[in-house]
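ingest -> fold -> write
write: protein_1
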Amino acid sequence: MKCRLLFLSAAILATAVSPKIMAAQATSTNATIVAATAGTNDEVTAWAALQKSKRAPAYPAEWQTTPPTAEQQNEFRLEMAKKAEAVAESAKDFAARFPNSNHLPDATALEKAMRINAKNLGAPSTASIADAAEAPAAVDPLDVEMEKLFRDTMKGFDPAQPAPTIQKLMELGEAFQIAHPDTPASYRFLLSIAVLPGADGIAIANKVLKSSAPEKFKEFAASILKKSEAIGKPMTLKFAAVDGRAVDISLLKGKVVMVDFWATWCGPCMAALPEVIDIYDKLHEKGMEIIGISLDEDKDELTSFLKKKKMSWPQYFEGSWQNNQFVKEFGVEGIPSVWLIDKKGIVRTRDFRGDLEAEIKKLLDEK
């Protein structure tokens, strides 16, 4: 599974983490945030700690394999809600301790946003939620119905033979659209299918683009088409890496290049990382290269992680996943997202799923 970057249903994701562990993690997270942001009288340090604290909790690596129970999904939402509450309290504390700070408007806005997030995620009313100028959005019952329908059907999904489940999902999606025409949940259902391996994402995306769907859904559909159109074409990728190296994928012709969209906060990315490192160690001298597109927000933490894991390949760092230029350019809606480029510089696969080492070896054997 992936860490979703946009708005698709959380029901696609899965977890095997117990409720007790989740609750302990949430309590620990809150204490850490409060201690980190309130434990200094230095405005610069406090603001940096506050920015760091607002990252969403990473999805556990177990989410890739084991379907969740309803209780487990609710516990994870509770963890996120509690963290949002903790960040809101820290933002409020920052504003109180540094009333003349240039960051005051941002701290106030952050508190408001986190109060609303906490409420939307199911947390009880917090101390200042009534002060928020914007009421929290109500949960759409159709979204709940759609998520359950999608999750129940996905229990039979086999990546090796996706067709039966894809067909069943399409039938359910069409029926859902007829029963609930032009609703956000109906478009979310279809787009959730579009990103699955084996689905005709192009046909689904075009259908959404021609519909009266809200703009955010059309933007997501356009990103699906953008990725699909990349297959069979050269990839343009040029930047200065986090360590200062100049990177230009056009200069790597003759090599097989893996472009890896990832982040240290992404559970599935961390679960896949040992395999990626092992493949690089085995195949680098045979002509395999990796270019990392990191969606991390802290440069020092990223460079420390790269050094610790001995990841020597270049990494692009922008400091923001929301506005990352390559995420937008290549229509990446979730990570990890692995793109494979052949020796001629042509995109052969994007969002690769399967035996990565075997696929790279196959490309290396091509003349």
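write: protein_2
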Amino acid sequence: MNKKIPMRQCVGCREMKGKKELLRVIKTSEGEIFLDVTGKKNGRGAYLCPNEGCLVQAVKNRGLERSLKTVIPKEVIEGLTKEMKIIAK
């Protein structure tokens, strides 16, 4: 029997992709927002393609804020951009 691949929607480009292809951004119960590389940490999650364009789009269309149900400060977005550049290499 074929194993079903879990699909998630990127909050930037709004494309459906396999969960493993996307990066997970989480908001913990303490209100911290960061990239979850393992994809298993506790918290409210949103998925993004591993490129900067989707992060920019997600910020512009407020998809990330909507998914995490919080306002995201500029410093956090800058931090996510830096983390994404490191991971994408």
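write: annotation protein_2
The domain at 7-88 is CATH 3.30.1230.10 (Hypothetical Cytosolic Protein; Chain: A;).
The chain has three helices and five strands.
pipeline exit 0
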